[in-house]
Structure formats: structure tokens, C-alpha cells
Please model this.
Amino acid sequence: MMHTRIEPATTSLMLAVEYLRAGELVAFPTETVYGLGGDARRDDVVRKIYAAKGRPGNNPVIVHVAEADDAKEYAEHWNGVAERLAKHFWPGPLTMILPRGQKLSAAVSAGRHTVAVRCPKHPVAEALLRAFGGPIAAPSANRSGFTSPTAASHVMAELAGRVPLILDGGPCRIGLESTVIDISSGDVPTVLRPGAVTLEMLREAIGDVQLSIRTVDNNEAAASPGMQDRHYAPRTPACRFNKSQWPAALAWAQQHQPVGLISCDDAVLLAAPHETVRMPEDEFEYARALYGALRELDEKGLKAILVLMPEKNEGVWVAVADRLRRATVELPAAEARR
Ligand code: TXA
Ligand code: MG
Model:
């Protein structure tokens, strides 16, 4: 097993560049989550990324660039919509799906005719991209299917022995993965993954935008082993519930104690031996704290994690609800009906 170093980004940036130039992987901070980066022009390097994450070969990865001009180079077409999105939101937490050009490893596209490109807004990510001088392929720096890392210690917990260097740039400011918008066809631009660049913001910038979240419900998928579309999930079994289901959730917690509870409501709290994480009420603060809270509860050896679904459904709450749905299953129906 390879040794994993964790180093301050301030002093080890050039070391990271050396690793990248040598075709090695480096984990680094962005404003959304930590990424597992490698040279996006090299097939062998992109294959290493898939292997380190245990990521299925049919799930394409995002290519990070220092500026919009670089994105133009890696896309086959760059139209007015791309131009406006870049002007409004780059650098920032927005990923565009564009028709694929020929300069990148085909492996980043996992067999598709498109490529995902993002220009991140984080001093370390920006400095790394500039110093490296090339495109960096970087999925979130977690094992495939599990919670994305929002701190260097999370990357260590996920990828120790699988990446030689983790650049520590402190906690991530946004804490949820970037918004992914598909503008590769002539159709209405489609958000495939909601994020901190919200639907409202996108519509103001480019007009009509639709939301198309692929939801294979975990309950349903569990019926066919190996087909489970589990994402952003803790290792501890996790169930979600609405406030109206609180009595049922409470009963369930007593039968499965101790459980962890993630709540954003003072009327929904559990006492010891359970563990409650009281989440912030602000949408940005909630998003920033979410993955750390899931990870914290996951490490406590609890029987289960219960998540109260926030009731709001606009702005960043859309992204929060999306990640919570993917990280959990519904509270079992028998209990929910009581
Ligand atoms: O915030 C982020 O986007 C972070 C940081 C590191 O930049 N990266 C990240 O990458 O979340 P990853 O690989 O964990 O998620 C990328 C998402 C996946 O859902 C993938 O299926 C989708 O983007 N994606 C990538 N390329 C695509 C393509 N060509 N067409 C459709 N979806 C694509
Ligand atoms: Mg990911």
C-alpha cells in the first residue's frame, strides 16, 4: 500500500505540481468539496483516478480548468449560453456539460460525446491549476458511493493508501458538489445535479432551465442487489423522515437505539443515548455543515442515522434535499404508518 502524506497547501503546492507532472494523483481543496486530481490529458492517469475511488468505468469525471479560455479549448463547440454561464458563474461552483473536444483523455468522458468542465473558485485549486498549466480531472475525493470530503481529514479517512499526497486547504466553503448543467445539445439547458449555483440564479442568467434529477429510489433499488444507486451515503444505515412523521421516527429510534439524528428543528431532538446534530437554519450554513455531520455520526458506531428533511424547497435547499435523498432511504413504511 502506498504511503499518503497530508501537507499544508501553502507550503506544498509545488510538490503537488511535481506529482501531477509525474502522472501521480493529488487530492486538493475546492470551494465545493475536495477533489482527487490527475492530468486530464493522460488515459493512464485518469484510469488511476477510477481505480483509487473504486468508481464504475461508466461514470464520467469533471475536468477542472484555470479559466474559461481553457474550457473553450477542450470543448468542440462553445456557444452563447456557455459564454454567459462562464461570465456569470466562473470561477465558481458550476460544471458545464459540453460537446467533447479531442485534447483530453477520452477516459474522462467514459464513452460519451460530452465532457464536464468546471473552473473552481478556491485559492489552492486556482494556484494548482495555474502552476500545473494543464487540465486536472477531479471527481470528489471519496470512495465511490460514499460521502464527499469537505476537509483534508475526510480525504485521509477515504483514500489513505490510495493517493500519495493530500493538500490541506482547510474546510470547504460551500460543502456540496457543484451544480452540473448540460448545455451540450440544442435542448433547454438541463440541471443534472443541483448545487450552490441555484436554478433561480441560472434562469436569471440564461432564461429557460429545466431540472432533471435521476432518482432511482434506494428502497426500490435495494430489491436487486448490485443495482443500488447509492450516493453521497454514510456507512451507517440512514433513514429520512418529514416532520409529520416525527412520532413514528421517535418510535423507530427507541427500537434501534442508539441512533444519530440530523435535525434543523428544535421540536425534533433526541436525548442520550442517542446523538443529535442540530443543523443551522441558513441554507448555505446547512450545506457547509452537512457532510461533516454525516461523517461525525458515521464514526460513532450507531445503529442508524435519522435525518429530518428540511421543509424549504428553493435555492440551495434543492441541492441539500437532493443529497439527503441519495444518502438515505425512507423511514420503513410500517413504522411510518403507525
Ligand atoms: O464540486 C464538484 O463538482 C467536485 C469538485 C472536486 O470539483 N467534483 C465532483 O465530481 O463532484 P464527481 O465526479 O464526484 O461528480 C461529477 C458528476 C457525476 O455525477 C458525473 O456523473 C457527472 O458529474 N458528469 C461528469 N461528466 C459528465 C458528462 N460528460 N455527462 C453527464 N454527467 C457527467
Ligand atoms: Mg462524487
